[in-house]
Amino acid sequence: MTTNRIAFQGEPGAYSHEACRSARPAMEPLPCRTFEEVIEAVRTGAADLAMLPVENSTYGRVADIHHLLPESGLHIIEEAFVRVHISLLAVPGTPLSQVREAMSHTVLLGQCRGFMRRHGIHPVTGADTAGSAREVAARGNPSLAALAAPLAAEIYGLDRLADQIEDRQNNTTRFLIMARQPDFSRRSDRMLTSFVFRVRNIPAALYKAMGGFATNGVNMTKLESYMVDGVFTATQFYADIEGHPEDDDVRRAMDELAYFTSMLNVLGVYPAAPLRAAQLRDSPA
User: Fold this and answer.
1) Between 197 and which of 57, 217, 261, 265 could a Cys-Cys bridge form, CB atoms 3.0 to 4.6 Å apart?
2) Has this prediction a pTM greater than 0.85?
3) Where are the alpha helices (DSSP H) in 78-199?
4) Does the annotation mark 173 as catalytic?
5) Residues in domain Prephenate dehydratase (predicted)?
6) Which among 35, 175, 197, 237 is annotated as catalytic?
């Protein structure tokens, strides 16, 4: 049974909601309070897909996500990227000169310091971005605005007084789209494989485990470590590599990795997003 719903964490109008509308415009977005609720919605069949943010180009990885993915029982089927465009939202009819305060999540407040300083606007910490937009709409106070995605203005009936006011123009968040069943059948020019692993307790285990990727010419685009259950001696690694597990070079590298690991769990095999190819093309040689 399918629901045609895609679950995300946050209020309607959040950047995760924007990611859902962009990547799956025909699906109904399902807002959830926590990442755990997003995962549970897919596991129980309340939603078909989960949209989960994993990292941001400015602030790094999203806390707790790497701990949740291996235990979720879900599989990565796609990646999506959202440019974090920030708008100043206010009650209808408000001129920019009347705004004295702007409410948002602390992360967004820190990304608009230049604009806020130029216009004499003081920051006010809110629970999240879309929730701040909803609060501004509810209060109806023209001196209080919100910093949020343009989508939030549409949902909560606010005016966009200024767009793309972020200090950094390349701020981007990467999302993973996850489903109950994996899909290894697809092929494209650039496939990605994501997995988690723990190395065996032997000298130079990580060095030896990584050697198979070098000798087989497999490009590793991401390798991150994190503690397991708060124990300093238990380290788990998350990795993204280019290629499909059925490719000969990837198969040999993964076989060698398995020899030096006590746990290896493939989270998903999926096509690389077009943004990756664009960045590779535009990057200096």
Assistant:
1) 261
2) yes
3) 106-109, 113-118, 129-139, 150-156
4) yes
5) 5-180
6) 175
